[in-house]
Amino acid sequence: MTTNITERRLRIACDIAQEAGKHALTYFADRSRLNITDKGLQDVVSQADLETELLIRERLAAAFPDDGFFGEESEPSGLESSSGIWVVDPIDGTSCFVVGIPSWCVSIAFVRDGEIEIGVIYDPNSDELFAASLGKGAFLNGKPMSVSPASDFTGGMTGFSFSHRAKPEEIVGVLDRLLRAGGMFYRNGSGALTLAYVACGRLNAFYEPHMNSWDSSAGILLIREAGGWANDTLANNGLIEGAQVIGATKGLAEAWQKLIAEA
Hints:
single chain, alpha+beta, Fructose-1,6-Bisphosphatase, Chain A, domain 1, D-Maltodextrin-Binding Protein, domain 2, 2 domains, 7-stranded mixed sheet, 5-stranded mixed sheet
C-alpha cells in the first residue's frame, strides 16, 4: 500500500510540476504582465510565483486532501499531518525569471516522518523533468540518471548558490579553497536546478551556506537516489528554518565536506 501511494504521489507530482512550469512559462514569455514585489535584499516575488504556487497547492489538495503543504509564497497548513507534507517552490530562480534569464524551475518534494520521499524538479525552458522517489532511483525525462564518477576537483565544475541570509565569508572561503584545489565553480541563479545538475552528472558537487527547505528538498533526494551523497537538511528543524546544503558524488563527498569545514 505504501509503495502504491508513493508511486501515485510521484506520478501526480510530475504532472503538476509540468503543468505549473508551463503556466509560469507563459509569464516568462511576456514579462510585461508581471507585477513584482521586493521581499528583501536580492529577493523578489512576482504574480507568476503566486499564481503558480496556488495552482500547485490546489492540484495537490484535490489529489491528497490529508497532506500538509509548505510553500515559499503562502501560509503553511497541515505541518503536523501524519500523512506527510508537500514542500514547494513554484519558481526557484525568480531573480532570473523576472529579467529574462532562462535559469529557473519548479521544485516539489514530499516529506514524511522526517524523510524526503519524493523529489521533482521541472525546467520548462529545456523541458527537463528530474524525478525521484525514496529507494527507487532517479530519472531525467523517464531515463535513469546518475551522478558523475568524479573523485577529485580538477575535472568538471562545482555548483554554488547564495542568498543574503548567510554572510559572504561563509561562501568566499569555500570558493577560495576550491579554486586552490584546482576546481572550478558554477552558479546559475537557481539552487534547486543546480542540485538537479549534480544528480544528473553535469556538476560534481554543490554548496550553499543556507537554503530553505522548499528550494533544497527535491534536489537532495535526486542526488541521493542518483548515487551521490547529500547532508541531512531536515535535522534541527531544517524543514522550517532551512539549513546548510552540501551535495557531491560519492567519490568527492568526504573531501568536499572537509574542504567546507576547513574554510
